[in-house]
Amino acid sequence: MLLNKLSLALLPFGTNAAILKPRLDDGVAGTPPMGWNTYNHYSCSPNEKIVRSNAKALVDLGLKKLGYRYVTTDCGWTVANRLANGSLTWNETLFPSGFPALGEYIHGLGLLFGVYEDAGIKTCTTGIEQAGSLDHEEQDAATFMSWNVDSLKYDNCYSDETTGYPNTNYAPSISPRLRYANMTKALAAQSRKVLFQICEWGLDFPALWAPSLGHTWRIGNDIIPAWRSIFRTLNQAVPQTSFAGRGQWPDLDMLEVGNNVFTTPEEQTHFSMWAILKSPLVIGAALKDDLTQISGASLSVLSNKDVIAFNQDSLGQSASLRRRWTEQAYEVWSGPLSGGRTVVALINWANEARDLTLNLPDVGLQTAGTAKDIWKGKTVSNVKTSYSSSVEAHGVMLLELRDTTPAGVYPSSKFGIRNGNTITFNSIYANTTSTNHTVSIVFSSAATTTGSLQLQSSSDTKSISIPVGKSAKSVSSPLSLVAGSLNEITIQSTTSIDSIRIESPSSTYYPCTSFTLSGSAALAKCGTGFCLPVGSKIGYIDGKSTARASVHATVSTLGTTNATSKYLEVDFINNDIALATSWGFGSNTRNMTITLNGGDPVRLEVPLTGRHSELFGPGLGWWDSSTMGIVVDGWKNGDNEVIIGNVAAGNVFQSYGADFVGLRLYN
Ligand SMILES: *[C@@H]1O[C@H](CO)[C@@H](O)[C@H](O)[C@H]1NC(C)=O
Ligand SMILES: *[C@@H]1O[C@H](CO)[C@@H](O)[C@H](O)[C@H]1NC(C)=O
Ligand SMILES: *[C@@H]1O[C@H](CO)[C@@H](O)[C@H](O)[C@H]1NC(C)=O
Ligand SMILES: *[C@@H]1O[C@H](CO)[C@@H](O)[C@H](O)[C@H]1NC(C)=O
Ligand SMILES: *[C@@H]1O[C@H](CO)[C@@H](O)[C@H](O)[C@H]1NC(C)=O
Ligand SMILES: *[C@@H]1O[C@H](CO)[C@@H](O)[C@H](O)[C@H]1NC(C)=O
Ligand SMILES: *[C@@H]1O[C@H](CO)[C@@H](O)[C@H](O)[C@H]1NC(C)=O
């Protein structure tokens, strides 16, 4: 039996044009805010000494100079009872000098003063009850203003009236939006602008409404001091990356760098991803207090100027997930930077260091004049098609690419090796094995001679004629190429060749409605304009091998090689959001397996796709589809049986697999 190989690309998420919703267009947060916050290290037990010594450390350690400016005291600073006149006040045991004095101290260091409150009747707390701002928005905003506050992080505990104000309710019957809007209004009535950080844990898909109310919004539940929460958070970020933009930043939560919970490669991955997804960068470690200080290794992660510059880049566009290889345990994200540059991150999810290869076509590129490997601290020139490097366990290959060219175009000057009338191009990439790729040969000047030229790839030979009596600028031919980046093309021609271009073959679409179902799998119709491009989906694919959807696909383009990898794209849906499960093993993913011709199932673990509210939106976000590209081995010319399932391999967290909309097979 052939060993199935699988890779996965994510397409519609990759569109770079930000979907800019009306936003708080007040000039605050032109780039993602950076700072320090008490919570990740000190929980809800801050005090004046802690905040002062960490604020001072921001300056002393050079972090202020790098852009970390907001110093925020999180939960635990206030008390249960308001003053007689209704104003909020601080806990005098913890903050004997008072909040206004704390603000003065912070401002005196050239930093900004951040406070925390809650859109409920009490703040989140791990200890004593403390007053929330619900129904006191105007007075609290005025109080903060009188203390010269610069930012407000606004939490969501004890906020749901209809269920009697429990600590958390992840499925309230009323959107949190109106409570946040009341604080927006109260802050807007003040004389100075305040950075407003919406922290309602991603309920009701805030990407659609938070930009008009605040400058940042939390995309999901809290980060926890465990490596698995990085994967969980990234899977939730996937359908939201296009919402990032000037003045509106998706908040992946505060950093755990420096809290001695991650290895250095893990800290590099965490920091790199938060930076390129344009999250606020808020340090959550003890920089310096009476007991501890941050390690040199963690400080150097937080101080990396290139990574900070990616986050603060003037273009303000987030990177997006481009391709995921589930079984090979790595994935690729990329995004545009100002100056025509591109940032790419390849994450090694495996528990060991490995050599990994980035194929530039996976991020839409063919060459890069230079690639700066950020964490390796080296720059290489003239990168063609691929870049390989060792990547630590849970580490990241983070690259800044300059002077790039788009995928599919191979200039002779870069790729061609001449020998008389023969020119050989190597490092030719194809994402599928097919006899039906189109190769276009572009001449340096119009070929006026007539005749034929010889075209040869590792798996094919073609003779192409230049049309008689015409001057041809280019000629095209189908050509066989094998999936991967190792194809070589040789051309014999008396006319000088400028470049060659490669196009993928055409595709055939197999909608879910054409699949045969068994077991618990069930077809459902979606609302008009949803479950694109089919309008229906197959759900309830449970972990038993009997629940599945199958179809027969005819293939005729494998040619005579023994290569059997074909590229296909799966349209799927997952809106299984990890809320209560985020403290444990919730990952925001679902599995899908593809079994070809009775071979071993290959597994994709797909991220969230929902781009509407899980509480009130159409289909509760379960009608929003996305696409991933995968390469599956084991195809044959003639009839092939494809089974979409969710064949359990080991312990599964969620027994239902991703919903399936359809698949597109590249001929
Ligand atoms: C202030 O904080 C201290 C230490 O956590 C606590 O013991 C005390 O009860 C708090 N005071 C009030 C009024 O909440
Ligand atoms: C309430 O009382 C405190 C303490 O005296 C004072 O600082 C604050 O300005 C008062 N607030 C209002 C709204 O009068
Ligand atoms: C918002 O404020 C208005 C006016 O104070 C109040 O009537 C309304 O109940 C508030 N809405 C929420 C959801 O708190
Ligand atoms: C693979 O080929 C298809 C068809 O041209 C294209 O749409 C897709 O972007 C390619 N994917 C990758 C990862 O190169
Ligand atoms: C067939 O596969 C083997 C092993 O992967 C390889 O060495 C050989 O070159 C292949 N033959 C052709 C015709 O591609
Ligand atoms: C997906 O499958 C893998 C391997 O069996 C499993 O570890 C993981 O928990 C599954 N994911 C979910 C969301 O069930
Ligand atoms: C191969 O490509 C040609 C030209 O695009 C197309 O007409 C033909 O249908 C393709 N063959 C297959 C099997 O897809």
From TrEMBL:
Residues 328-401 form the Alpha galactosidase C-terminal domain. It is found in: Secreted. InterPro entries: Aldolase_TIM, GH, Glyco_hydro_27, Glyco_hydro_b, Melibiase_C. It catalyses: Hydrolysis of terminal, non-reducing alpha-D-galactose residues in alpha-D-galactosides, including galactose oligosaccharides, galactomannans and galactolipids. The keyword Signal applies. Residues 1-17 form the signal peptide. GO terms for biological process: polysaccharide catabolic process. GO terms for cellular component: extracellular region. Keywords: Carbohydrate metabolism, Disulfide bond, Glycoprotein, Glycosidase, Hydrolase, Polysaccharide degradation, Secreted, Signal. GO terms for molecular function: alpha-galactosidase activity. Its EC number is 3.2.1.22. It comes from the Eukaryota. Belongs to the glycosyl hydrolase 27 family. This is Alpha-galactosidase. It comes from Penicillium arizonense.
